[in-house]
Design a protein that fits this description.
about 325 residues; mainly alpha; about 0% strand
Length: about 325
């Protein structure tokens, strides 16, 4: 009996070790997959604050909370099961789907560049309403739709990195990545949109240091928001172009992925301690250029089609 108990305890210990190893494996895989999706996460965090701009400060955090809940639903109830089905029954479709999403990101980035330089207007000229509840509902709905695209990119990038793992590991990694990225993105967004309120509160404190920091935050937030817009645009083009470049390589085309990789390695070897950063920067810049070219082409084509629609109606 004691020997049987010892054997049982050994089995339990073995199972516990396997479970711990599995958790470590999922954590490591989720971290690696999440890092690869960082560009989309940056863009998501940069894009979202615009949805609460101009709304009542008292409703900013509740609205962000509603968008975050919608994002979780997007990731866990829609994207995760579809991604796992594709991974099981049509793994060949992951790369083309990822490239379609990359093309969309390139298009969005190109549209933002047109807005910056006065060559286009991407905002919808839709209906307006004086009803705060209606406006809030419309704001949340629009943000959740945009989040669906960005969340799909995050999840497919993560899945693509663990496509050769068991199905349970894939599901666990996607679950961890989905929840973690949502917390990171919307936690950061909540902090960003309330930073001016935090600054005002600090500026009213008796401490001179607190007042100085508070005034600095209030004055600096417009600059930070503008910088986030630029970073978000670059992230869209960089991530979208990079997805297309790596996707074509996975589909069997050596150009442009391999020449870009060789150039990045050459720059890294030639620049010593800064080699890693500069090599990455070369890849990111070329990816962004690819994003501009592809996204600009798609935007031009869609604008031409839009111009033809009124003529077709006559």
């Amino acid at each position: 009996m004691p020997s049987g108990l010892i054997a049982l305890l050994d089995d339990v210990a073995g199972i516990a070790k396997m479970a711990a190893a599995s958790i470590d494996d999922v954590g490591a895989a989720a971290g690696k997959a999440g890092a690869k999706a960082a560009g989309v996460v940056i863009d998501d965090a940069a894009v979202t604050p615009k949805y609460v701009t101009g709304l009542s400060p008292s409703r900013e955090l509740p609205i962000i909370g509603k968008i975050a809940v919608g994002s979780i639903r997007n990731k866990l109830l829609l994207i995760l099961p579809v991604a796992l089905l594709l991974s099981s029954f049509a793994p060949w479709a992951l790369t083309p789907i990822l490239m379609l999403g990359g093309t969309y990101l390139c298009f969005e980035g190109a549209e933002k560049l047109l807005e910056m330089f006065g060559g286009g207007h991407h905002d919808d000229a839709g209906e307006t309403s004086d009803d705060p509840a209606h406006l809030e509902k419309k704001t949340v709905s629009g943000a959740v739709r945009t989040d669906l695209i960005l969340s799909a990119e995050i999840m497919v990038i993560a899945l693509n990195d663990v496509a050769d793992r068991p199905l349970l590991t894939q599901a666990s990694v996607l679950l961890v990545v989905g929840v973690a990225m949502t917390i990171v993105v919307y936690g950061a967004v909540g902090l960003i949109v309330k930073m001016d309120d935090i600054g005002l509160h600090m500026a009213q404190k008796p401490s001179r240091l607190s007042q100085t920091i508070g005034r600095g935050l209030v004055k600096g937030m417009p600059i930070i928001m503008s910088a986030l817009s630029v970073i978000g645009t670059f992230a869209m083009l960089w991530v979208g172009g990079g997805i297309l470049m790596h996707g074509t390589h996975e589909l069997g085309l050596h150009w442009p992925a391999e020449p870009v990789e060789h150039l990045a390695h050459a720059v890294a070897h030639a620049t010593g301690p800064l080699g890693g950063l500069l090599g990455w920067l070369v890849t990111a810049l070329i990816s962004a250029v690819i994003g501009v070219v592809i996204g600009g082409g798609v935007a031009f084509a869609l604008h031409q089609i839009a111009r033809l629609k009124p003529d077709a109606a006559h």
